[in-house]
Specification:
This protein has 238 residues and is of the alpha+beta class. It is 25% helix and 28% strand.
Length: 238
């Protein structure tokens, strides 16, 4: 690390503790200390300062870790210990990692877990248009009009969703590829059009595919997957 100050939320992200946004929440709740003193929002830290979260020291891991996880329905994407079914406790991974992009509690599918905070930040920037693909089952037959409206954009959360790719894969099932990640986006889009989601599964993040990875299991990225992923975000990492 260079001998200069960095924002505390970035330090936590780079250490693989959590996203910057969740870091701010931890700081706001008084869960983070710097050299024994409760941290303040917007605080900066220098190399060598002792940063702790919930009383445990935090440091940037030397070895880069990336692996895929098939999140089961019911597991919550948070590091909050008060949440009984939080993803970190479920995984019990020996190195501190965090997730790149959430899946809501009622959804399942592909998660990328890493301790590379910079990669996480770049992948999560909305302007980078990174693709995520989902298979969805709804409560009634999919129509051509429904598919068209989903693809063109739906008004939710005081905006209109970006145009996306949608195709029918069954009577009541469709595949959708998004390049943004609004809160519970697909569920809200379907609800606006009068549909209820019965099953939602993420099957791809950029070049990474769920494939036959069993529910609740993990696997390391292959060398080719890792090389391709970093090439895809190469510009953002410069």
């Amino acid at each position: 690390m260079e001998n200069k100050e960095i924002r505390l939320n970035k330090y936590l992200s780079d250490a693989g503790v959590c996203s910057r946004r969740e870091g701010d929440r931890l700081i706001e709740r008084g869960k983070v200390t710097v050299d024994g003193t409760v941290a303040l929002m917007g605080q900066k830290v220098l190399p060598g300062q002792r940063v702790c979260v919930n009383g445990k020291p935090v440091s940037k891991e030397e070895q880069r870790v990336l692996f895929l996880f098939h999140k089961p329905k019911g597991i919550v994407c948070t590091s909050e210990k008060r949440e009984k079914h939080n993803i970190i406790d479920y995984l019990q991974y020996p190195v501190r990692v965090t997730y790149v992009g959430r899946l809501d509690k009622d959804s399942e599918g592909l998660m990328l877990m890493t301790n590379d905070g910079e990669l996480n930040n770049k992948m999560m920037r909305a302007r980078n248009m990174h693709e995520k693909e989902y298979e969805v089952r709804v409560n009634k037959p999919v129509t051509a009009d429904f598919l068209r409206q989903m693809a063109e954009g739906v008004p939710i959360l005081d905006t209109v969703t970006r145009p996306c790719k949608v195709r029918q894969i069954g009577k009541d099932r469709f595949d959708i590829i998004l390049t943004q990640g609004l809160n519970r986006q697909i569920r809200r889009m379907c609800e606006y059009l009068g549909y209820e989601i019965l099953q939602l599964k993420r099957i791809r993040i950029m070049n990474l595919e769920l494939g036959g990875l069993p529910v609740g299991k993990t696997r390391e990225l292959t060398g080719q997957e890792m090389e391709t992923l970093y090439k895809m975000v190469e510009q953002e990492l410069e």
